[in-house]
Design goal:
alpha/beta; 7-stranded parallel sheet; 6-stranded parallel sheet; 18 helices; elongated
Length: 412
């Protein structure tokens, strides 16, 4: 009797961009591989992302982590590289019968990709994981969502996101935020500070200015000078600056020297390896708006959040697009309150950065108010096991190849 040939691997595409998307994508790749193995399900994962997804076991089609900017003029340098990438991806898609797709954040490119894939294959299962924060912002008179037109399911990371898309008619699973998984085994504060050679009375400031080149231009100078002013007020304050990208480190070091700030700049690779101990040891962070705000909150690090776009982009967003959002930091958005200080556009001055940072360093009441808010935030981010729940939801929707009969599992 002839042996039954093994089933061909199912073909899954995951698309994301930026450093945070690559990191969250790598966690999902790992969870998908583990869950597929538990189901005896042959699976091949292709990725538009970065090196972390590749290291997790995905076949990297293209590195999208550097093709990111927010704004109008800021995106112009990426137009030609993005069009070339899209042409390559379009050609590849026509050669592969995909059994499923996962889109992670990365709103503009992923929405375009989702619409294209839906036109090409009306039956293709498409999951959107970590959807754009449409539940929080508005353009003009109403929402801007187009996700439900091509997504079979949305894997929501925030409760309000789940409510928003459910009200729009989408199939939604609230899985929780993946950061809940990454901070489960965070190091203790005392152990982390010991590894960093911090004395009992030493204060550590983390400066986290940029993962995009535009943030280096618009945020870094004000945050650096604010940190320098803080250090002049507190001469023993130690400052560590993890570079968001490997190419950023030389620029940061030069600007640190220009401000007179005494700081240690970590290359991106070392920063990634030591992130947990840095966050566990820190007393304060000066940072940009983004996922890092939630991560700092889960490590109980008080923070001052700054953000600035170019003046033309800010003017168009406000006066032409009528862009409205109550807060810029995910921490404040989730809680719907101004828990952490936000300094936007012209309000982002070195003096304001230093004043807010000083209050969080010296006022027990101010620090405790933030820490209490962080406690409330955790209840809005779900429970550990997020990426495994997301992986189960994705695998449950895959278009199964002939002869493949994996065990089914539903999201819990």
């Amino acid at each position: 009797m002839a042996e039954t040939p093994p089933a061909a691997p199912l073909q899954l595409l995951i698309s994301t961009g930026e450093i945070s998307g690559d990191l969250q994508g790598s966690w999902l790749v790992k969870a998908l591989r583990e869950e597929a193995s538990a189901r005896n399900l042959p699976l091949c994962i292709h990725a538009l992302g970065g090196e972390r997804m590749e290291q997790a076991g995905a076949h990297l089609l293209a590195d999208t982590t550097s093709l990111s900017a927010i704004g109008l003029w800021e995106t112009l340098p990426f137009v030609v590289p993005t069009l070339r990438l899209q042409a390559r991806v379009n050609g590849w898609i026509r050669t592969v019968r995909l059994d499923g797709v996962v889109l992670i954040d990365y709103m503009g490119p992923n929405v375009n990709l989702g619409l294209k894939l839906r036109r090409m294959d009306p039956d293709l299962p498409i999951s959107y994981y970590i959807a754009p924060q449409e539940w929080a912002f508005r353009m003009g008179e109403g929402g801007t969502t187009r996700l439900i037109g091509f997504s079979n399911q949305i894997l929501a990371v925030f409760p309000e996101e789940a409510k928003f898309y459910t009200a729009c008619g989408a199939v939604v699973h609230w899985v929780g935020h993946p950061l809940m998984d990454s901070t489960v085994r965070r190091p203790g504060r005392a152990a982390a500070r010991a590894r960093l050679n911090l004395g009992e009375d030493s204060k550590l400031l983390l400066l986290l200015p940029a993962s995009r080149s535009q943030e280096m231009r618009y945020l870094l100078p004000s945050l650096l000078e604010g940190a320098a002013q803080l250090q002049r007020r507190h001469p023993t304050l130690q400052v560590i600056i993890p570079a968001g990208r490997q190419t950023f480190a030389p620029t940061i070091r030069q600007q640190v020297q220009n401000t007179g700030l005494v700081a240690t700049v970590l290359d991106a690779q070392e920063a990634h390896q030591r992130k947990a101990e840095l966050f566990a040891a820190a007393d304060l962070a000066l940072t940009k708006s983004g996922t890092v705000n939630l991560e700092l909150a889960l490590y109980d690090v008080p923070q001052v959040v700054g953000y600035r776009l170019s003046r033309p982009t800010a003017w168009v967003a406000r006066h032409v697009l009528n862009f409205q959002i109550p807060f810029i930091s995910p921490v404040n958005l989730v809680l719907n309150e101004p828990l952490v200080p936000e300094l936007l556009q012209n309000a982002l001055t070195p003096a304001a950065v230093a004043d807010h940072g000083d209050a969080l360093l010296t006022s027990d009441m101010a620090r405790q108010r933030v820490l209490d808010g962080y406690g409330r935030l955790r209840s809005q981010l779900g429970t550990p096991g997020v990426t495994r729940r997301a992986a189960r939801a994705v695998l449950d929707t895959l278009r199964l190849s002939q002869g493949t009969t994996p065990a089914s599992s539903t999201v819990s």
